[in-house]
């Protein structure tokens, strides 16, 4: 919770609006690199997992300090508008909020259900796998966010195609590494007890691959071209599909980590396919 509150002082939206994407990239890269390094150094076993949220607080706090420095450097000051402007802005941005909120709440619901129906070992396995997935998506975010202001001005298909081809290389390499060394990776991160969790991570490879392209097509393309409601709808339906899949697994007593990973794959694939459907209409 503290880590989330600290992100209030990381005004990425401001820097994106100013098209100063380096001010978004530097705090992110520096903070995440430090947190990742400290994670490998300090996390040695299950007893050290409580350090993870503390490291997140440290990372976000560092990013906030760097961001505030950039604000000071740009000589930007806080000014208060009329309350009617506030409500107008809130109303206009509510669709974006709902889209992000839906993703967050359904993701949290999935973790909660895992906590209810599975044991401590499975919970630990799933939590670490989700941390890795979140780390991968967080690396996609700066790219997707950085091109959004540009795409608002012009529909640059060449840029989208270039990014699609360019990132296919590291995504493919990363997927192959997970496929062949997933168990070893999990052992390094969580200790020898997490070796079996590598099998779950391997089944999440489609999420690593598909999520980048669904994010790339989402707000930078569909959202920028005015298909805001459609972009939000695809996000919500994808999350609902995941929850319904979990319910079906529970009802038929098939609620296992591998099945849950496949369920996540299906929802992510739907998200990409549905956005590609709207993309063809542009």
TrEMBL record:
Q: How does it sit in the membrane?
A: Multi-pass membrane protein
Question: What organism is listed for this UniProt entry?
Answer: Streptococcus bovimastitidis
Keyword line: Cell membrane, Isomerase, Membrane, Transmembrane, Transmembrane helix
**Membrane spanning segments where?**
23-43, 49-72, 93-117, 123-145, 166-191, 203-221, 233-252, 258-278
Instruction: List, alphabetically, the Pfam families matched.
Output: Polysacc_synt
Asked if the record carries the keyword Transferase, the reply is no
- Indicate what this protein is called per its UniProt record: Sugar isomerase
Q: Name one GO cellular component term.
A: plasma membrane
**Location in or out of the cell:** Cell membrane
Would the keyword Lyase be found if you checked this record's keyword annotation?
A: no
Entry's Gene Ontology molecular function annotations: isomerase activity
